Amino acid sequence: MRLVSSWGRLSACPHDVLVLNDRSKVSNVLAGHHPGIAHGMGRSYGDVCLNPEGVLWNTTGLDRFIRFDENTGRLTCEAGVLLRDVQRLVIPRGWILPVTPGTQLVTVGGAIANDVHGKNHHVHGTFGDHVKLIKLVRTDGEIIECGPQLRSEWFAATVGGLGLTGVIVEVEIQLNRAAGPWLETETIPYANLDEFFQLADDSEAEWEHTVSWIDCVSRRGGRGLFMRGTPRGDFDRLEPQGHKLTMPLLPRISLVNRLSLPPINMAYFYFKKWQAGRTVTHYEPFFYPLDNLLEWNRMYGPKGFFQYQSVVPREFGKDALQAMLEQIARSGDGSFLAVLKTFGNRPSVGMMSFPRPGVTLALDFPNKGARTLKLFERLDAIVREARGRIYLAKDARMPRDLFESGYPRLNEFLKYRDPEIGSQLSRRLMGA
Amino acid sequence: MENKKRIVIIGATSAIAEHCARLWVQGTTVELTLVGRDATRTERVAADLRVRSPQSNIRVVQAEFLDPIAIQTVVDAIAGHGAVDAVLIAHGSLPEQSLCQADLTTCHEALDINGISPVLYAEAFAKHMAKTGHGTLALIGSVAGDRGRKSNYVYGAAKGMVTRYAQGLQHRFAGTAVKIVLIKPGPTDTPMTAHLKNQGAKLAPVEDVAKKIVDAVERGQAVVYVPGKWKLIMWVIRHIPAVIFNKTNL
Ligand SMILES: Cc1cc2nc3c(=O)[nH]c(=O)nc-3n(C[C@H](O)[C@H](O)[C@H](O)COP(=O)(O)OP(=O)(O)OC[C@H]3O[C@@H](n4cnc5c(N)ncnc54)[C@H](O)[C@@H]3O)c2cc1C
């Protein structure tokens, strides 16, 4: 048994960790040791990748490439390959992952199981939109190959399926053409939500990537920085040197608190505002700004932190955001990492995928126990009323009714579950 | 023929070897021969390396690890293709000490695969390197070979044999261009040690260990502990007087 935490570090519970590293032997391991749940890099914030006192099938040993066709951009690999290793392999050869989350230190399997999204949802949808084939191993030994056209109901259940339909062993992905590692980027300060929506609408036609940082502490009602980027091919520069900094110790208290937060946010806003404008940026710092600050999740102290990410339909978007920001500013908690982004209109492939048309807000909150949970209840009420949903990859506490109203295809999904697979999240929200 | 570096890995499916291979093909193109017992698994490693480095030539050779005649044949065939620049002998398995004590067959197999087999492979390559006066021969030993301890002395004895053997080869090739490298990894995070990790052991990441090995082979360094701290730790362990050592629970 080994103590395992997820990225939010809210718990460290013993798990029986079994390493999968031979793809032809996965079914042997699953058969002998269940119930369990697949665990990639544990970059999910809550309990979707945890199974306390039970088995975890660690997939990071399944890290081999299988085939890459440089002419068509089709990549086949094992499910434990990191997005970082895919990017570093394919970008120099003129290809790129069409969709990537804000960290590249996640596995391909984890990216599929949470059907992750990036800054370009309005152009390229979710990660699952680019997956052509999944090889899934079930605990009874059955191997299911599925894709958008092949056993597509299994595909729809497995993309965004939270690891509950089986263990993904092999994956085929269609990459996009890339002219190089560079992006033209622009940062634009905005003063309120109206300006944010205006910028989002104006940018989405011409900019592949859009995202914004919003100051959730200031009571001035939603000022922030809008960032947009678009690939640029005609650049030939030296690659940046990656400097890695690690949070050295676990601070005894959270470094993110009522005293530290307002000045940090203010400084960030003015510093960036001062830097605003157009520039050329390498894809790594643009897509993955935190990856060089290894283990930054430690700065929230020993009790860990929550991330609260919701999406609400556009028609209620502004009111809901306003109401949430007000609750957060009033609570005085909130965090530095507050991200606001619009999703495009493309429906997600997965039955349980998070992205849907609308606007999504993601915030970190240091875990202050009951007080934080009380704030979440107030935010939940706003999300519920706006007919929104909460991202399961980030969740550790949402009430079941909000889960059920947010994910209307739940009953359809349950038919594809593997009875010998379960996580802390599935027990909390699905009863088993 | 072009001047690609020729590298041979014995036991190419071992996690440490596989990560060394990834580093070797990264950046430059090489001619790599992967020798493994299980052809399918070795082929899988090769496929991954071919994706990483389409310009490299990657060959798979299936081989027997215990039979001296078969070893000789395989090595002669590989060397017959042209002078080898570097050989990494990486295979092994971590037996459970209690099983070795309970059953002589298990004990015998542990000694064979961790001691005899690497020595036979090295000896076969040494013959060719002596002839060509060229190449680096690297063997993976272990910190466990530095002093016998009750918790894993059968494995330690086999690795101790590799240590003595490498010393002898270094003596034999002293003053020539042939370099003998002995690598002594501490506990490394690989499938072989997964049970140790579950018991809470702190293990070195295999990528870091591989990086140090590839560097040591490049430099032709005689003895290298990875991670480096094991040099000091093992110096202490070797020098604890037996009266005290035998009271410890190492
Ligand atoms: C700094 C940071 C930024 C992030 N930014 C974004 C973002 O922009 N967009 C976004 O969508 N997400 C984002 N995330 C969340 C992250 O992308 C997801 O949580 C991702 O799924 C983590 O992958 P992982 O390999 O760590 O999987 P884990 O967290 O270990 O597991 C996640 C889920 O995948 C399942 N799983 C893993 N491997 C397999 C497999 N082989 N077969 C079946 N199931 C499997 C697990 O069972 C679990 O349900 C971010 C996370 C961090 C830490």
TrEMBL record, chain A:
Domain FAD-binding PCMH-type: start-end pairs: 10-178
Matches recorded under InterPro entries: FAD-bd_PCMH (IPR016166), FAD-bd_PCMH-like_sf (IPR036318), FAD-bd_PCMH_sub2 (IPR016169), FAD_lactone_oxidase-like (IPR010031), Oxid_FAD_bind_N (IPR006094)
Pfam families: FAD_binding_4
Entry keywords, A to Z: FAD, Flavoprotein
Entry annotated with the keyword Flavoprotein: yes
Record-level Gene Ontology MF annotations: FAD binding; oxidoreductase activity, acting on the CH-OH group of donors, oxygen as acceptor
Protein name as catalogued: FAD-linked oxidase
Lineage: Bacteria, Pseudomonadati, Pseudomonadota, Betaproteobacteria, Nitrosomonadales
TrEMBL record, chain B:
GO CC, any one term: membrane
CDD domains according to UniProt: SDR_c
GO molecular function: oxidoreductase activity
Keywords associated with the record: Oxidoreductase
Superkingdom in the source lineage: Bacteria
SUPFAM superfamilies xrefs: NAD(P)-binding Rossmann-fold domains
Family: Belongs to the short-chain dehydrogenases/reductases (SDR) family.
Database matches in PANTHER family: DEHYDROGENASE/REDUCTASE SDR FAMILY MEMBER 7B (PTHR44196), SHORT CHAIN DEHYDROGENASE FAMILY PROTEIN (PTHR44196:SF3)
Name of this chain's protein: Short-chain dehydrogenase
